[in-house]
Amino acid sequence: MGTNDLCFTSAVxxxxxxxxxxxxxxxLMDAVLGRAERLQTHLNAFATLCCDDALKAARTAEKxxxxxxxxxxxxxxxxxxxxxxxxxxxxxxxxxxxxxxxIPAADAPSxxxxxxxxxxxxxxxTTSEFGHKALTDSPLLGITRNPWNPDRTPGGSSGGxxxxxxxxxxxxxxxxxxxxxxxxxxxCTGIVGLKPTLGMIPHPQSPDLFGNLSYVGPMTxxxxxxxxxxAVMAGSDEGDPHTYAKPKSTHPLTHSSETIEAFKDRKIxxxxxxxxxxxxxxxxxxxxxxVNLLADVGCRIEKTCPQIESSEKIFLAxxxxxxxxxxxxxxxxxxxxxxxxxxxxxxxxxxxxxTDLQRAIYDRSRVFQQVQLFxxxxxxxxxxxxxxxxxxxxxxALKPIEVNGKTAGGMRGAWYPYTHPFNLAGNPAxxxxxxxxxxxxxxxxQIVGPWFSEGAILKLxxxxxxxxxxxxxxxxx
Length: 477
Known about the structure:
The chain has 477 residues and is of the alpha/beta class. The chain has one domain: Amidase signature (AS) domain (Amidase signature (AS) enzymes). 37% of the residues lie in helices and 15% in strands. A hairpin with a 5-residue loop joins strand 14 (429-436) and strand 15. Helix 6 (159-166) packs parallel to helix 7 (183-189).
């Protein structure tokens, strides 16, 4: 296989080819690292590249493969990790000067499990500072570009992960999603991104374990690769109380063999607007066309939306108060080196009262109940992932966005109102590519389901992938 072919081959296919000795772990790693190093200056997808350690691990993996030793599910497969998650011996900076020299002594559970399954860490991907916004730039790490158009953002805050996967810089990436930060860049870069059910993948790094809004999620080019990653990373962990409640019977499948006929009797809700008034005309046409494809093959589609409270105000109460509490003490020393948009969040959090936060906790409980009632009537909810394709690279996160040439409001309420309600409610949600605009920018479709319905969501996503494939769509970087 050629270098580019290797870099854009799915992990599932790479594993199969390795077992047949058609390719080697070293050959694959050379191709991936070579491409990553060549494109780093242009795209800035990585905070750190672990070239020497990754090549050493690939040589070990090749030796084990030749010796026919028992192999893990991801043996020899390169993966990247967002620079918000702990990685043993590799800098985890959170995109901030505050933690510029932070070297964790242990891996996050999800990272450890990928390594134990034979995956090889190639580097840490860029993020906005502490993942605070849906764009990927920070004072420490600089600006990350979208491989489909370098003048557009890859979204955020897992933008480096989205760029890396879309540009063929390792087939698997670990992101985090605190309000849409896996699904937003997945939509912007034309890949698959899954925010799992609260507790499906452990995330003991969260400062508020019991009120957690942040999720660890896989980002890949294909649905089967997402399912494979999820199966490896999922499971209980003593550091995360939410993982204790995960039913064993709902463990995600590693591959879907079901056809679209399995969904003909399922009730699917199509919601074009979820608290927002404007949707980009092309985005609406592309996502509606995708839903019509499902209807054409027999899925039962009904136009309706969950009747839930506006989640933006609830989300912002947690967001502002969390950053003010977590980072306020660093302002005297690092204030001039912190992203102005993060400083804005900290300042707003300082003006919130305890009753504001407690009210948000109550409101989150109501959103949870409202969403679960909706899923008593419907098996799936489908929405656009975003109201527009990727925003301009230089967009200021504090400024309103434009939709169809008109000012539409702030980013959270006008660009990604579809994502953060399910961080509050805990439901799993996946973003999959469903088309490209005339400017060749990807558009994402979001599928949401009941708690612990990852298996069903992945099967529906895989069925859509079969009738509307996207993996051969490669950015001309």
